[in-house]
Structures are given as C-alpha cells and as structure tokens.
Design a protein that fits this description.
Length: 459
C-alpha cells in the first residue's frame, strides 16, 4: 500500500527569542545541563574574563557524576546558579554573554533549542514548543491559523480511501510494538479530530479517549480488528456525527471537576520552587472561584460555573483556536497517543493512560483559565490566557513527577475511566437566557505579590 504524507505543523520554526524584551527568563529557577560537546568547546577558549566566568559557573564532579547520577553526553555537566537562582552567564539586560560574545555555536544544546522540543517517531520529525516560554505561548495560543495544515489535510484525506492507511516501513524482527509502525495514520486521525469543529472541544477529547481504548484493545488482542479497518470506520463514524446525541447524555458534574482541578493545581506547591508568576496565577484563580475561609466545595463550584458561563465560555466562542492550539501543541509535545516511553521500540504502551494524562493536563489548564476569567470578569483577555498557560506550563511541564502524580490522582479519584474523563472535560453549554438568569455572586479580591501580602498556596 502507498504511504500517506504526514501532517506537518511548522509553527515551531517561526519561533524567535525576544531576549531582554521577554517578561520572564528561561535562565532562572531551573538547572541548565551542559552537553559534552559544548563543555569541550568551552575548554578550548582562550584566557578571558568570560572563560574564567564559564569555568567558575560549570559544575562537574569526579567520575562524571553529579548528585550521585551518572552524566550522559547530553547532560555532561550543569551550570551552577547564582544566589538569585539565575544563570551567572546572563548580562544585566538578561541576555546570554556566551551568545553575545562567542556566537550561537557555543551555546549548550539545551540553550540553543529551548523552547523547541524535537521528536522523531516512525520516521517523522516533529517539533513542538514548550509553553513555559511566554513568546512560545503567544505564538501557539494566539494564531487562529496554527492548525490550518491539519484542516487542509483532513479535506484531502476524505477522498483518499483505504490506501491512506499504510504503515511506516519497519525492518523484520526490530521489536517494534504492533501499533508503532502505524504512527503516521494514527497521528493523522488524532490531529484531524483535534481540529474538527463539528464537535465541541470536550467531545473531541472524549472521542480521543474512545479511540485510544479501541487501539489498546486491538494491540492486546482483545479486539480482533485490522488497523486500516478500524481507522476507516472511526473516521466514518466521526464524519457522520452519529455520536453527538449519545455524548449529550454524558455526566456534567461541576463540583467533581473542580475538585480534581484543585487537587491537580495544588499537588506540586510543596515539591518545587514556586515562581512569582505562578503565584499570581494561583491567586487570580482562587479569587475567581470565590475562595474564602468559609468557602465550601459547593460554593466554589457555583463561582466556578458562573466564571465559565459569563466570562470564559464567551471568550472561547470568540477565540475557539486558543484551546485547540493548546491541545494540538500538547499532542505533539507529548508524542500523543504513544507517549515518550511508548514511542520507543519494545517499550510498554498504553494509549488509554496517555489519553488520561492529556485530559488531566487539558482540564488543569482550562480550569485555571476559568478561575482567572472569573477574577478579571469582562476584562479577561488573550494576555491573561498567555500569562496563565505560561506560568502553569513552567510549573508543571518540567517537573519530573507531574505525569506520575497526575495519573495516580486520576486513578485514586476514579476519574481515569470514560465516565470520569467526561466529568473532567464537560461543562454546561449555557444559552444567553441561562447566563443572564444565573444570580450574581460577590466579587473576590486576591492580593498579588506586589501588594506585599502573604501568599496562600493551599487549596
């Protein structure tokens, strides 16, 4: 069978660092690895103040280990942060002295590529952006045409027939999981569904869950279907919109959704360095859902529902691309639905688990945005979206324990199944009359760090 042309989103190629104009810095609060190639270049530098600063700033250890962990070539050493937890190689204008004085060719691999994340799966090279960078968040979230290639591909593929479902070539006996050679058509279906506005966004995510459970069943032998037949039938079902009525019967439980969002948002507050930008995000969120010493889950859920109906949902109707783009970028960044481990030959694969993690990330970000919308009211804007998503991404995406803890929370809360994921995804779709009829709730004020108040980080 002939192979299909992969969907290729090229937005990451347009990213350009804005340097000292950026409202945040990627050189603060993190450890910065130094790859072996960059380290050896530094050793060849002639004597100079910069060479002395580099030598004083790079942390190495005997036998190539730091903190008891063996270095790999990509993390051969690391930069020692200064007393302000900033990279000592930054200028007063927050520019990199290495790049300014030596050129981009002397940057470490991490510094040269961030915020880009490059993946190679099934012979396809993909590059996403981590939204912990404010400029990357703006580029991804605010471009209404970011997914245009997906929609064009979707139209063209409708007439391509079964010939489009061709696996990637794989050498015999290479130990590839049974689904990995089908990465191209599976990814194509996933991205096409993510951009399919015939369904509300929560329904698209729910259908992705159905899709992943069926693929897992095929891989385990529980469901006797060929991959081409399944993909063809699934796309035909989606195109027919036959499931729209059935999905309207799925549960909508605002309090249960908010409870998980609160627990997800609070799980790392005592495990990592909490940055001021994330503190601002948390304070706006909690104020927007009516947090107070006397608040109950029911009262918080009432404010949360009002914030969704009056401020967030109208904003999203005007800018539907914002969460669509967030979803597509997360799909690429996380190698969904294979995941980082499942994308490796011979690795265990659970697409159902990957969909639960995708849902958790989506529900967390959307939940934070709903609260922030409640805080800002009619003034809620794209700038607030960028600030919230960037701050949350910097806090959660780079934490090595977040995925594991999030999945454990879903399992513990019994939200990892189809019913639970529907609760996490679905909010009421209010009409104008019901929005107007909802009683007004008192506005709350959350002091920001600049006001000198104590930061509350408990949920």
């Amino acid at each position: 069978m002939p192979q299909i042309l992969p969907i290729r989103l090229t937005y990451a190629e347009r990213f350009r660092c804005i340097g000292s104009a950026c409202e945040d810095t990627c050189c603060q609060g993190w450890s910065v690895p130094v790859d072996q190639a960059a380290y050896e270049k530094f050793l060849q530098l002639p004597a100079s103040p910069l060479r002395s600063l580099i030598e004083a700033s790079i942390l190495t250890a005997p036998q190539g280990a730091v903190d008891g962990k063996a270095f790999k070539p990509a993390s051969f050493a690391q930069i020692r942060m200064n007393g302000q937890n900033r990279c000592p190689l930054l200028t007063e204008e927050s520019l990199c002295r290495v790049q300014a004085e030596l050129g981009e060719g002397f940057l470490t691999r991490t510094c040269a590529t961030y915020p880009r994340i490059a993946n190679s799966i099934g012979g396809i090279e993909e590059t996403a952006l981590t939204l912990s960078c404010p400029e990357a968040a703006r580029l991804v979230l605010l471009d209404p045409k970011l997914l245009a290639p997906v929609r064009l591909a979707q139209k063209g593929l409708a007439a391509a027939g079964q010939a489009r479902y061709a696996p990637a070539e794989a050498a015999a006996g290479d130990g590839l999981p049974s689904l990995l050679p089908w990465f191209r058509p599976i990814r194509q279906v996933v991205l096409a569904l993510a951009g399919n506005r015939a369904y509300p966004l929560w329904q698209r995510l729910f259908l992705l869950g159905v899709f992943c459970r069926r693929l897992d069943a095929i891989a385990s032998g529980e469901l006797q279907r060929s991959i081409p037949d399944f993909l063809g039938d699934f796309e035909a079902t989606v195109a027919s919109r036959a499931l729209l009525t059935a999905m309207e019967t799925l549960p909508q439980e605002c309090a249960a959704q908010l409870d998980v969002v609160l627990r997800l948002a609070g799980m790392l507050l005592h495990r990592s360095n909490v940055r001021p930008r994330f503190v601002e995000c948390v304070q706006a969120f909690t104020a927007g859902i009516g947090n107070s010493p006397s608040a109950t889950l029911e009262s918080l859920a009432a404010h949360y529902a009002q914030a969704h109906d009056r401020y967030f949902e109208p904003f999203l109707r005007r800018h539907p691309h914002v969460l669509e783009n967030y979803l597509a970028n997360t799909i690429l960044r996380c190698r969904f639905p294979f995941g980082r481990e499942g994308a490796q030959a011979g690795a265990p694969l659970s697409m159902t688990r990957e969909c639960a993690l995708l849902t958790a990330q989506f529900a967390l970000v959307r939940g934070l945005l709903i609260g922030v919308a409640g805080f800002h009211g009619e003034a809620f804007s794209a700038a607030h979206v960028v600030h919230t998503v960037q701050a949350a991404s910097k806090h959660f995406e780079h934490h090595p324990e977040f995925s594991r803890l999030a999945y454990e929370l879903l399992v513990e809360s019994r939200m990892d199944g189809a019913r639970g994921l529907a609760i996490l995804l679905r909010n009421a779709e209010p009409d104008a009359a019901s929005r107007a009829a909802r009683p007004a709730l008192p506005e709350m004020h959350a002091p920001g760090p600049r006001e000198g108040r104590e930061v509350t980080t408990s949920f």
